[in-house]
Structure formats: structure tokens, C-alpha cells
Amino acid sequence: MNKKMKTEKQMMKLPVYAGILFSVLEIMMALYANSQAVLMDSIYDFAEAIVLGLIIFLIPLFYKPVSERKPFGYAQVESLLILGKGLLLIAVTIGLILANVQMLLHGGNTIDQQLIGYFEFGLAMISAIVLWLLTRMHKQVQAPLVEAEILGWKLDVFSSIGVGLAFFLGSLLDNSPLYWLSPYIDQIIAIIIALIMLPQPFHLIQESLKNLVLFAPEEEVMEEIKQCAQELFDDYAYEITFYDVIQTGRKLWIEIYIRSHSNMLNVAQLEQLKLRIEKGLHDRYEGVDVQISPDLIIK
């Protein structure tokens, strides 16, 4: 477990350093070119890097065993950080949307759109390199944080390409009948980026709140658990009557209630089933804890 923890910490340093590098480059370009769209990207990258850095600092807590005082360990700390990140991103995004709308109403902003286009394509190339490195490292350790970062960097590659193309197309307006639109392109692209990204923090808040209040996980997760358990229980004379599943952070607690057709329970069999279910789900979920209990309700 200590080796896995150290490997995960080392792996997560790459997106943190890359995120800081991106935010610095984007802030410099935003100040130089006076671009609101680049400023939007820089704020997102900076917020991502800060929260991810805090999570890396707290990774050792996620590997600590549960105790009587902390029955869920420190799994909910990760959810709290993600909740804070979601609230921060929503506040920043709404603020930037309002600022860009105000700028639109005051005549827009003329920028070097081709320069921004080349800059975004450069970011896309660097993002692709980071994505390739993360994908290779992910083969060593299956961790939810790494999976989330891989998805995030995939989005970064495509969004940078899309923004770059938008600015290149916008630069063509200078010599067209629509030249009057040119000063508004930067604000329009910034608002579009914000609206596209806005659902992401809402999703983060929704998922973190579900984890914090100990709701059952999504239906897809429940179905995967049920399928794994049922396939194993089919070989034994037990009937599953109820699933009690809690997911908080990266931890998954599963309690399966059963009835025996013979009114007898084989403790050795149940222990074997418990271990087989945990093994079956371990590749997909980290920190799986399975308990099998008799359903004592008499009907």
C-alpha cells in the first residue's frame, strides 16, 4: 500500500506542475494580448492545480485504515476539497461571464487573433504530451485521481484546438463585410468557453455532496456491484435480498444481506465470497470493503 501511495503521489505531480506552467503561460499571454478567453483558461488551470496540489498533500490520509473514531477514514476529505473546487469555479466563471458581457456592451476588445490561435495550438501540443505521459503511468497504478486527470487533459487537448481554430477563423473577419464583429470575437469565445465549462463544477458539487451525505452511488455503479455479486452467489445456496452501498471519496462500502435456503450459514463460504467480490471490484474501484450479513427479517 505504501508503494502504491508513493507512486500515486509521484504521478500526480506531473499534472500539478503542468497546470502551474499552463496558468503562468496563459496569464502572461492574457496580459500581453489582453485576451479574456486566455484569461478564462488560466483561471481554470490555476484552480485545478491548487486543488490537485492540496489533494496530493492529503493522499497519505486516504490510505489510512478506518477506526472506531473515524469509521469512514479520511475519504470524505477528498470530497470536501472537490466541493470547494466546484464552488470556486462557479463563482469565477459567473464573474468572468458578467465581465465579458459588460465588455461586449462597451465596444468589445481588439486583439491579435492569429497570435492567440498559434498560442492555443501550442498548448494543445503540450497537453497531448502530458496526456500521453499520464496514460503510460496509469498502467502502473489504477487510481481515480489519475483517471480524472486523464479525462481532464483529453478535454484540454480538444478545447485548445477548438479555441485556436475559432481565433483563426475570427481573424478572417478583418477583411470581410463582417469586420465589425472582430472586436467582439474574444469576448464571445470567452463566454462560450465559460458556458461549456459551467456544467463541470455543478457536476463536481453534485457528486461531492452525494458522497458527503452518504447517498448510494450512481445506478451504473450499483448495477456493476450487483452483477459481480450475483454471478458469484449463483454457485451457492444463498439468496441476495438487499444491497446497502455507500460511496464516499474513493472508498466503497458494500453490505449484502442474504437468506439461506437451508437456514444455515457457512462462515468459511461467506468469507470466500467476500474476498472474491472485493477482488472482482478492486480493479475498478479503490478501497472496496464488502460485508455479508444474514437478513433476519421473518416474513
As for the CATH topology of the largest domain, it is Alpha-lytic protease prodomain-like
Structural class: mainly alpha
SSE succession = HHHHHHHHEEHE
Order of strands, main sheet, comes to: 1-2-3
- Number of folding domains? 2
Overall helicity? 55-70%
Q: What would you report as the Rg, rounded to the nearest angstrom?
A: 24 Å
Uncertain spans: none
Mean pLDDT: 80
Shape-level CATH architecture of the largest domain: Up-down Bundle
Q: Biggest β-sheet, characterized? A: 3 strands, mixed
Shape: elongated
β-strand amount: 5-15%
Could you give the distance between the termini? Answer: 44 Å
Subcellular location: Membrane
InterPro entries: Cation_efflux, Cation_efflux_TM, Cation_efflux_TMD_sf, CDF_Transporter
Keywords: Membrane, Transmembrane, Transmembrane helix, Transport
GO molecular function, one term: cadmium ion transmembrane transporter activity
